[in-house]
Write a structure and sequence with these properties.
About 40% of the residues lie in helices and about 20% in strands. It is an alpha/beta fold. Helix 2 (about 45-60) packs parallel to helix 3 and helix 8 (about 230-255) runs parallel beside helix 9. Bound molecules: 5'-O-[(R)-(carboxyoxy)(hydroxy)phosphoryl]adenosine and zinc ion. 5'-O-[(R)-(carboxyoxy)(hydroxy)phosphoryl]adenosine binds near residues 141, 167 and 168.
């Protein structure tokens, strides 16, 4: 069974065909990073206009060699994300589903990130079959969610960010350090020539599975404005502080809940230090998608859509965008 996935929630226009919820047939991502970088972040109006320009060429490219008769369903992200951006994907998906008489499957972007772990691309970390119950850490530009997954479609949110999301913290720290956008890859790159030798705080929020990164960001700002610190050392120290908190708190929850596995996902899961620390410290197997499937893509949307379709969860023509949609 082949699903066409469509993703336009933020600044990537993406389309992909995935077979049986795991095998990637095509995976096209048109990034707008170069356009937004000069503003230091995503400009929503510019993003939706770029999605409009890119969506049809991107879908056509993903469909190369296939006809609509080969496709069994159209899965599309309907939230969370930027309203104007989500609208482009949802309306395109609706039009295709209606014209080609295919089931329309609205997908939660956070759930889709988790389903990147079902994609059978080249293993990175300990890939393999997902075993329930598993603990999902979704760390992206807008979310740091710790979610217990008991089965397909069964999610229970244990923790979330109380202020900045992990990716947002990377982006803001990069701005403080005068590094580029997006901040995650820029901080990771700068860290390579530095040492994590500077004292930065970690918000443990004992007794809660929530996260908080805004105090760390403020501490970094004070450190940099005092002067005399190298950008590389500051980047490395910041990165280690974020990694420490994410790894320790997630592993603690995994032990408490006696889960079978930990599943990482979201753009921040592309961070090498984060994945190394998880693999070195977790008592249970850790599944980590390869970096290009951690950041926004449509293969994860198609994989997620497959399991919705299997469960008979289909959307109507009245599917609308939900910019503040949450999971669990
Ligand atoms: O999942 P994603 O592509 O989009 C959202 O759903 O938000 O995540 C984007 C976020 C950005 O904040 C970016 O700085 C961060 O993921 N990110 C990283 C890395 N690559 C992307 N953070 C740390 N290390 C990375 N290598
Ligand atoms: Zn995302």
């Amino acid at each position: 069974m082949k699903i066409l996935g469509i993703e336009t929630s933020c600044d990537e226009t993406a389309a992909a065909i995935v077979e049986d919820g795991g095998r990637i047939i095509s995976n096209v991502v048109a990034s707008q990073i170069d356009i937004h970088a000069r503003y230091g972040g995503v400009v929503p109006e510019v993003a939706s206009r770029q999605h409009l320009l890119a969506i049809i060429p991107v879908i056509n490219q993903a469909m190369t060699g296939f006809s609509w008769q080969d496709i069994n369903g159209i899965a599309v992200t309907f939230g969370p994300g930027l309203a104007g951006s989500l609208l482009v994907g949802v309306n395109t998906a609706k039009a295709i589903a209606l014209a080609k008489k295919l089931p329309l499957i609205g997908v939660n972007h956070l759930e889709a990130h988790i389903y990147a772990n079902w994609l059978d691309s080249s293993p990175h970390g300990e890939m393999g079959r997902v075993k329930f119950p598993c603990l999902c850490l979704v760390v992206s530009g807008g979310h740091s969610d710790l979610i217990l997954m008991k089965g397909h479609g069964q999610f229970e949110k244990l923790g979330r960010t109380r202020d900045d999301a992990a990716g947002e913290a990377f982006d803001k720290a990069a701005r403080i350090l005068g590094l580029g956008y997006p901040g995650g890859p820029a901080i990771e790159q700068a860290s390579r020539s530095g040492a994590p030798c500077l004292p930065l705080p970690r918000a443990w929020l004992k007794g809660s599975h929530d996260f908080s990164f805004s105090g760390l960001k403020t501490a970094l700002w004070h450190l940099v404005h005092k002067g005399g610190v190298s950008v590389a050392d500051a980047a490395a120290s910041f990165q280690l502080a974020v990694v420490d908190v994410l790894v320790v708190k997630t592993i603690e929850a995994a032990k408490q809940l006696k889960v079978e596995q930990i599943l990482l996902s979201g753009g921040v899961a592309a961070n090498k230090m984060l994945t190394q620390h998880f693999l070195a410290n977790s008592p249970v197997p850790v599944l980590i998608p390869p970096p290009h499937l951690c950041t926004d893509n449509a293969a994860m949307v198609a994989a997620c859509g497959y399991y919705h379709l299997q469960a008979g969860k289909i959307s109507g023509c009245d599917l609308d965008v939900v910019p503040s949609l949450s999971l669990g």
